[in-house]
Amino acid sequence: MIRTHGKWRAAGCLLLVFILSFGAQGAYAAASPVTAASAAPETLGIVTLGDSITAGYEPGMTLNSQAYGYSERLLEQAWFHGQRATLGNYGILGLTTAGLRNYTAALKDGTTISASTIQPGISDPRMDDFAAKAAQTKADLAGAKLIAITIGGNDVSSLLLDAKNLTDAELQARVQQMLASYTTNVTAALENIRAINPTATIILADQYQPVPSLYAGSSYSKLMSAAASFTQTTDALVQQVTRTDAPVLVAHVAARFAGQESSLTHIISHTDFHPTQLGYETIAKVFTEMLWGDYRVPSTFLTATASPRPMTIVVNGTELNTPNKPINKGGQNFLPLADIVKAMGASGTWDNKTSSATIVYSGRTAVITIGSKTMTVNGQKVQVVGPAFLQKSGKEVKTYLPLAALASGLGFDVQYSAQLRTAFINP
């Protein structure tokens, strides 16, 4: 599940009911079905920490808005690459590196979390919620396999306004002061995190420069030089704290924003810059490429012209490509089972006498009968949202079965991204 804070909810997973079909006669079996001896699937626990970039903030958002930033995209990419994954997004609006140091120290020590103790004057209206969920946050951190951090923008925001009035020497002195503070605070925050979780992979983003050249004017080169100094400092910091058994890596986001600031950034004031949706996708790409090598989107994003786009099914990291496209019926989505059985490595048989389908996967057996509002999983009856039914397709009669119940009964993980209109099915 996705951890959320208060009413300002991270983009959540929806329970999606699919119906799969296979021919009303015969059996289907994968070439290499998974056996009961298979190892239990692991879940990639992802925790994101930091400022409003982590939180996924965009201009105009309210407490009722759903964020869709780099954190949520990182979760989708884990699903897209065939992994079970959960997300705890703990991005705090307006957080500085000093605030991150204080926040992680409070989590480590179990002390009070409030605006006054973490960062006086911080403006995030969800601070009480963060305080109430401190124990869960610490537990999420302790169990995480991946911790991603964006921090530093609020430390340097004054430079965006002041750079044009500073000489090169003054700017350099100001940047060096900020870098010293950044190094001290982030190093301490990483030590706090390591005290909670000694082995998780930590990825720290460098600080990109958000101001377009047309907007910055003669200050642009100065700001780019400052960003380069921050990247060098981040690289050096990480080199000092990384270990083979507990890696700390740098996500080089700044290079992706250079020269593209106008399309990747909202400009809402002299010091308030946040990524556009394209900007958040760009940040997510940097993290994703480090972790899995490629950033994926459904093929319909490249080929479909209709709105909304057709639904996509991704099974164990592979997009289902079949003539039998998903069909919406009664607000639910239906798909032929034969394709899914093959993709999952399951096996299935059909019994004409009982009008039932039997599906076997990883030592579990599910039996679903036409018209029944229950299915049997390893001998136990469970409710299904939509009963199985027969439907003629050309000269063939096919049996349609409820995937959400089937996947749960057989131990599959089913997640759905409304933004991608994609269901992810992972063993």
TrEMBL record:
GO terms for molecular function: hydrolase activity, acting on ester bonds. Residues 314-425 form the Copper amine oxidase-like N-terminal domain. Keywords: Signal. Residues 1-29 form the signal peptide. Pfam families: Cu_amine_oxidN1, Lipase_GDSL. It comes from the Bacteria. The keyword Acyltransferase does not apply. InterPro entries: Cu_amine_oxidase-like_N (IPR012854), GDSL (IPR001087), Mao_N_sf (IPR036582), SGNH_hydro_sf (IPR036514). This is Copper amine oxidase. It comes from Paenibacillus stellifer. The lineage of its organism: Bacteria, Bacillati, Bacillota, Bacilli, Bacillales.
